[in-house]
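pinging the channel bc i need a second pair of eyes. not urgent but kinda urgent?? the chain im working w is below, pasted from the shared doc
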Amino acid sequence: MRQLWRRKSENIAAYLFLLPFLIIYSMFMLYPIIRGFVTSLNKVSISMDYTFVGLANYAEMFRDRYFWEALWNTFYFVLISTPTLIVVGLGLALIVNAKLKGTTLLRSVFFLPFVLSISVISSIWVFILQPYTGLLNTFLHKLGVVQELFWLDQPQLAWISVLIATVWWTVGFNMVLFLAGLQEIPEDIYEAARIDGADAWRQFTAITLPSIKSVMLLTVVLQTISSFKLFGQTYLMTKGGPGTSTRTLVQYIYEKGFIERDMGFASAMSYVLFVVTIAFAIIQFKLLSNKD
């Protein structure tokens, strides 16, 4: 009986310690999620009067060609950004993990942009990419490129510009994750491989990649979720243009909810984005975690 009472008291103490977190989590995570779903089932007027319409917002959303365009733009950015950020992040981690002079400085240099705000990052890259007087075009002219490139005014160049800015801004975070995984690999394994005659590429494919499998999975999932939430770069650099060619789903949600004041429609799109993101994360966990 005494042991049972002691066990119950320990459980009560644990729940009391968890209570502050659970209260905050419920207020700022669970309640907004539930409230957003309720909003998606209503038409909300400017005066915030709710009129229940059931699944009408979802039906209207699936008939909206701009929704499908924004969803495709989001998918497109995920497809081009995730592999790029994984490869570049791993490459930078391999560089700074090498026993070379100056790697400590390189770690700081590579990670520094990540601490800057999106408004600062976007302003820097708009200045670099602007035509005629931009830093990039000026450099290309000195290399002999005669044509003036309008980086933010052509759809494909605009996506490349957003990708470059995103890589420069966020790749430092991926680098840190990969670096932590690389530093957990015992040096003895590499020494044994070198004695057996394995070259650098063989060591990378047979030792490094399998050893950082869990870090790779975490980084891919986090990067995919982050890419699905793309908003600041396109909104501040291209305004979703030219036209609507770089308008992502988060930007469309923002425009519908806070500019057109159609909160029900915006909430419905938010839930679709939430479901799609979760589905992609689950699929990646299944595919990557089961792969030898």
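so The mean pLDDT is 89. and Strands lie at 42-44, 50-52. — does that match what u expected or am i reading it wrong
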